[in-house]
Amino acid sequence: MSELALRAEKLDAADELAPVRSRFVLDDVVYLDGNSLGALPANVPGRVADVVRREWGELRIRSWEESGWWTAPERIGDTIAPLVGAAPGQIVVGDSTSVNVFKALVGAVRLAGEGRDEILVDATTFPTDGYIAESAARMTGCALRPVTPAEVPDAVSDRTAAVLLNHADYRTGRLHDLPSLTAAVRAAGAVSVWDLCHTAGALPVGLDEHGVDLAVGCTYKYLNGGPGSPAYLYVRRGLQDRFDSPLPGWNSHVEPFGMRPSYEPAAGALRGRVGTPDILSMLALEAALEVWEGVTVAAVRAKSLALTDFFLECVGAYVPEGLVESLTPQAHAERGSQVALRCPNAGGVMKELIRRGVVGDFRHPDVLRFGFTPLYVGFADAERAARVLGEVLEPA
Ligand SMILES: *Cc1c(COP(=O)(O)O)cnc(C)c1O
What we know:
- This protein has twelve helices and 13 strands.
- It has two domains: 3-17 and 295-393, Alpha-Beta Complex (Aspartate Aminotransferase, domain 1); 47-292, Type I PLP-dependent aspartate aminotransferase-like (Major domain) (Aspartate Aminotransferase, domain 2), CATH 3.40.640.
- By secondary structure, the chain is an alpha/beta fold.
- The strands form three sheets. The protein has a seven-stranded mixed beta sheet with strand order 2-8-7-6-5-3-4, sandwiched between helices.
- The chain has helices at 3-13, 44-56, 63-66, 72-80, 97-112, 127-140, 152-155, 178-187, 279-288, 297-318, 346-355, 379-393, and strands spanning 30-31, 91-93, 118-122, 143-147, 160-166, 191-195, 214-217, 232-235, 325-326, 338-342, 358-359, 361-363, 367-371.
- A hairpin with a 3-residue loop joins strand 12 and strand 13 (367-371).
- Helix 2 runs antiparallel to helix 9, helix 4 packs parallel to helix 9 and helix 5 (97-112) packs parallel to helix 6.
- The protein starts with a helix and ends with a helix.
- The site of pyridoxal-5'-phosphate has 13 residues, from helix 5 and helix 6.
- Pyridoxal-5'-phosphate (PLP) binds next to helix 5 and helix 6.
C-alpha cells in the first residue's frame, strides 16, 4: 500500500462524519458528482413509497391538509434555513432555480426603486442565470452589465438596482467573498441576489449574518434532494413586506381559497410561492434533508477542505507534472467543494474515469470536475480517484 493510501485510511478512521456515509445508497464507485446530482439518501425510497401509496393513494385530497402538503414549501424552507444561516420564515421551496432567479431578480429591481436602471451580473455565471438576467433586464428597462465578482465593488453605483452573483463558480470551483461583496452592494444602495447552488450544503453561507437581501439555490446538488427536486427562494425578513413577485400565483395569495379576482400577497416568505407545489419531489427532498441530523455545516466545511487538499496532493503525486492544471484556487477562502482540472481531451478522459469506477463530470471545453460531498465521500475515495486519473493519463 502506498504512503498516500495509508494516510487516507488513517484520515477516514479519524473522520467524525464517516458514519454519515451509511445514510446513503452507495456502491463501490467513487462518486464525485454530488455537485451535479447528490447521491440517494437511504430513507428516501420508503418515504416516497408512503407518500404515493398512502398519502396520495388512500388519503387523496385530504392529504393537502392532513399530510401537511399545503404548508410543505414553508416547512421545508425552514428545514433548509439553518444550513444556509437563515432564521425561520425567510425561505420557501418550490419551482426550479431558474424560475427563482427570475422571481428574485425582478423582485430585486422592484425593491431598488426609481432611478436605478442597471443590473450587474456575474460575467462567469452559470448560463441560466445569465439568460434570465438578460430577460429580466429587458422587462424592467434596465441595462445589463456583466462584471466579474471581483469587479463588483468598483462597478456598483447609485445607478445599480440589483447585483446577481454565484457564490461559487460552477466551472472552476472558486468561492466568491459573499460577506464583502454583499456589503459593497448594500453600501451602494443596491439589492444583492446570490445563487447558492454550489455552496448550500457544502459550506457555511451565513445569509442573515452577512445581510444578504435575496438568495436562490437548488436542492439536488449538495442537498441530495433528487433529480429535479425543487429549488428555494430566500427573502430577507426586512424586505418581505415590499417584495413584489413577478409571478404572483394563487399559492402566495393572502387568501388562496378566497378565489378573489384581484391579487393581494400573503405576508412573509410564502410570498415567493407561485402555483401548486410539486409534492412528490418536495417530500422526497424533505426526507433527504434528514441526513443532516446531528451534522453541522462547519464540520462539513472542515472535511470538504481536507478532502480537496488531500485530492490535490494525491493528483500532484500520481499525475505526472504538466498533464493537468488545477483551476481551483489553493487558498481555502477561495475554494468551494469541488476541484476542477484542465487537461487536453477532458471529455475522453472523463469517459475513461467513469469506465474505471470514478465518476466526476466534464465541462466544455477542457475541464474535469470532481465534486466532494463530505457527507458520503471519504479520503480513500479521493486517493483512488487521483490514482486512477494518473493511470488514465499515463498508461503504464
Ligand atoms: C445547477 C445550477 C443551476 C440550475 O438551475 P435549474 O433551474 O435547477 O436547472 C442554476 N444556477 C447555478 C449557479 C447552478 O449551479
